[in-house]
Structures are given as C-alpha cells and as structure tokens.
Amino acid sequence: MPPHVPTPAYRRLSFDERRSQLLDASLRLFAQRTPEDVSLDDVAAAAGVSRPLVYRYFPGGKQQLYEAALTSAAEQLKQCFDEPREGAHLSRLARVLDRYLAFVDEHDIGFSALLQGGSVVETAHTTTVVDGVRRAAVEHVLHHLNATEPGLRLRMTVRVWIAAVEAASLIWLDEGKQPPLDELQAWLVDQFTAVLAVTAAHDPQTAALLEALPTDG
Question: Which stretches in the chain have pLDDT values below 70?
C-alpha cells in the first residue's frame, strides 16, 4: 500500500487575512478588466469563496470593494516612490521608475481605467485616492532633491514631471507597451534632468539644489 499522506489541516483565515485575499483577487481582476466589467461573483470565484462571504466583508457591495481595492493599489504605487536617500539622485529616480512602470505593466487595464477616469463607479473618494498618489510622488521626489522648503517654480516643475510620467504610462499602454520599459524609463529620467535644468535657469533655488546633488560620476 502507498504511504499515507496526511491531509493538510484546514486553517481558518483571520478577518484581515480574508479581507486581504479578497482585495488581492479584486486587484487581479481590475488589472485585466475595467471595473464595470467585474462582478462580485467574479471576485468570489477568483478568491475561491462564496458571494455571501464577499458581502460579509464588503457590505457596501461592488462600490465598497472597488474603493478598497483602489486604496490598496494606491498604497502600492506610493511605495514605488519610497527609495533610500543614498547615492546619486538619478540612480534613485531610475529605481523608482523601474518599480512604477512594472506596476503599470502588471495592472495595465486597471491602471488606465483608474487614471483616465473612465469608470462608471468613479466617485469623489476614488478621485481623492488617485490624487493622493500624485501628491505623495511629488513629496518623495522633492525629498530626494533635499528640498525642505521648495519654492513655487520647483514644486510646479516636479508636479509637471509627475503628470508627464503618468501621461507617458497611459500612452505606452495605448501603443502596445512600446518602446521597451528600459527605454521608457531612461527617457523619463532624461526628461526630469531636462526640466530641472530649464527651471534652474529661471530659479536660483533649483539651480543651487542641482549643483549640490550627488552625481553618478
């Protein structure tokens, strides 16, 4: 007789673990389809649970689940900009963009729907969540520039570049994910250097920051 293989003991998930499981399943679906094309039945099937269980954790239904999934995705995007303040700032920026663009690549359809505001379930809350990602990105970049009290021109420059990264990401998806990610990343880093140089020609604070930043060479 073949040796007896014990069946793994069933482990009941905690509330937070089950909620995280449902959010992960939702994010995978929202990465593949627009939010309006995802049903609670789809989420339940993807998570291997029943529809009533989904309602138990998200009694507000699809809207609550969507907003929670968006908040979770937003936190992941914010973490993309969390880089140790060590070494040359362009090297740090390149690593940040690597993570950001990898997220865009993985969550392509969902990313496009969220940032283009094309979802019928978009609300003031979801708009605020997305705007929070942009503001966090700006603060992280300013932090890496050692700009403790950034002036108007410097802050505007960083905000414009963040908007350019977002727009480039959406265009990249529309163009069938071309050019390759490494080329897109390098181009965006060069863009950042260029816009800072332009601002530095008009703003003494930016000029001083650029001169003081560590370089790769």
Answer: 1-11, 110, 113-123, 215-217
151 contact partners, CB below 8 Å, separation of at least 6: 203, 205, 206
Strand, helix or coil for residue 158 = helix
For 17-34, the pLDDT digits (tens) are 999 899 888 888 877 777
Find out whether 177 and 185 touch, Cβ atoms under 8 Å. Answer: no
CA–CA dist 77, 4 (Å, integer): 46
**146: three-class secondary structure by DSSP:** coil
| Packing angle of the helix pair 61-80, 15-32 (nearest 10 deg) | 80
Q: Which residue has the tokens 């070494």?
A: 87
- According to CATH, the topology of domain 69-212 is Tetracycline Repressor; domain 2 (1.10.357)
DSSP 194-212: HHHHHHHTT-HHHHHHHHH
Instruction: Name 131's Cβ contacts closer than 8 Å, sequence gap at least 6.
Output: none
Residues 6+ apart with CB under 8 A from 150: 142, 158, 205
Q: Are 69 and 27 in contact (CB under 8 A)?
A: yes
At 70-82, the pLDDT tens digits run 888 888 888 888 8
Instruction: List the chain domain ranges.
Output: 69-212
The letter for the amino acid at 119 is S
